[in-house]
Amino acid sequence: MEETRRTLGLFSVLCVSLICINLSFSPVYAFYGRRQLRFNPDGRFKILQVSDMHYGNGKESQCADVSPAELSYCSDLNTTAFLQRTIASEKPDLIVFSGDNVYGICETKDAAKTMNMAFAPAIESGIPWVAILGNHDQESDMTRETLMKYIVTLPNTLSQVNPLDAWRYQIDGFGNYNLQIEGPFGSPLFLKSVLNLYLLDGGDYTKLDGFVYNYDWVKTSQQNWYEHTSKWLEFEYKRWPFPQNSTAAGLVYLHIPVPEFSLFNKSTEMTGVRQEKTCSPPINSGFFTKLVERGEVKGVFSGHDHINDFCGELHGINLCYAGGAGYHGYGKVGWARRARIVEAQLEKTIYGRWGAVDTIKTWKRLDDENHSLIDTQLLWSKNTIALVLYHNIDH
Fold first, then answer.
1. Domain containing 294 — which CATH number?
2. Domains in the chain: how many in total?
3. 4, 185, 271, 334: most buried, per Cβ within 10 A?
């Protein structure tokens, strides 16, 4: 009994020491007592991505691209109902709003009021949620900076205006930040981030001379911040205690798709559909190349192109559209609004405890009569990578 008490005491001291070390030295720690994200006791973590709500004035905002029979009653409230329905069905651990949350142009004159309505289902659910901006959010009475400064004040959000170390990089945009998802309690990795999310402000329209109404891109300053943050998280993942011999898996969320999304045109190359061209920046800033070089990111999740909802794999990275969730933004008659879910599952160690991320899966929920679940697919598997390496060494 005495030995058990001594062991528990030493374990408690170790835990407090590790927390102090993480708070003192990690430049990417950003929560300061706010609710930290971690995997569930069953080794799962589920993310609901909601893109392109284009919220306007609630019941006064008419739907776009729905059947004539729906026009008389369809409004922003249909978007709210869809989100409430999906949260209830999926019970996600995190909700990510990936831009064009509100529709300012010729619409709302009170962006704060509109955001309150748009994010209400997430706030009311009590589930942690985050948001980034699209190209339309700032087209009302708030700038991109004031939008993010307002969002971070809302209940249950883990959104950030920018990372704490943004001054080092003079980072462009507002809404660039990292979320670290730790292992479940009882896991050797409960003080390590086993899944890293990178949320980025892809801007709206470029201000450079010679470009007219062209979409913006991820800037060098943002890429430098990503690279530094990624390397630091790798260092923490590989250091004592319970050092890992690889990097933790990563996911990226941004509104405007990187140019590489345009490479997928055949149905055999993707899961899901392409129904419009990829509206990406006219300049390839090299962000995708940076992700390939780092090797940790398994998926990039975008919105912007409402009636594309496919995933395609390129150089080990899955490029995935969410599909439009909002009824006030454009869509396609007969093609249901939708949202994307991503679920990461941890592996079991030889000691029966939860270890690193083993698989990452995705599917979509439709706002149709059956609330259909479609296009379930395995995005990434640690075991698949291991088998490929084994095969190459053996041959």
1. 3.60.21.10
2. 1
3. 271
**Would you mind telling me the total number of residues written for the chain in this entry?**
395
| Structure tokens, 301 | 């999740």
Q: Is residue 154 part of a domain?
A: yes
Residue 33: φ, ψ to 5°: 90, -5
- 16 in any annotated domain: no
Does residue 3 sit within a domain?
no
Is residue 87 within 8 Å of 127, Cβ to Cβ? yes
Q: Which two tokens stand for residue 364?
A: 């979509």
Query: CA 387 to CA 330: how far, in whole Å?
Result: 44
- State the DSSP string of 26-80: -TT---TTSPPEE--TTSEEEEEEE----B-SGGGSBPSS--TTTTTT-BHHHHH
Handedness of CA 44, 101, 119, 177 (dihedral sign): positive
Sheet strand arrangement including 249-253: 37-38, 177-182, 193-199, 249-253, 297-302, 317-321, 311-314
Q: How far apart are CA 70 and CA 136, in angstroms?
A: 25
Residue with structure tokens 């392409």?
Answer: 274
pLDDT tens sequence for the chain (395 residues) = 444 444 444 444 344 344 444 433 344 444 444 568 999 999 999 999 999 999 999 999 999 999 999 999 999 999 999 999 999 999 999 999 999 999 876 566 789 999 999 999 999 999 999 999 999 999 888 999 999 999 999 999 999 999 988 888 899 999 999 999 999 998 999 999 999 999 999 999 998 888 877 999 999 999 999 999 999 999 999 999 999 999 999 999 999 999 999 999 999 999 999 999 999 999 999 999 999 999 999 999 999 999 999 999 999 999 999 999 999 999 999 999 999 999 999 999 888 899 999 999 999 999 999 999 999 999 999 987 543 333 344 44
Which pair of tokens denotes residue 152? 């971070």
Q: DSSP E strands: which ranges in the chain?
A: 37-38, 44-50, 94-98, 129-132, 177-182, 193-199, 249-253, 297-302, 311-314, 317-321, 338-348, 354-366, 373-381
Domain that holds residue 114: 28-394
Find out whether 73 and 35 touch, Cβ atoms under 8 Å: no
Pairing between strand 177-182 and 317-321?
unpaired
How many Å apart are CA 279 and CA 274, to the nearest integer?
12
Does 18 reside within a domain?
Answer: no
DSSP labels, 183-235: PPTTSTTTTSEEEEEEE----SB--STT-SS-B----HHHHHHHHHHHHHHHH
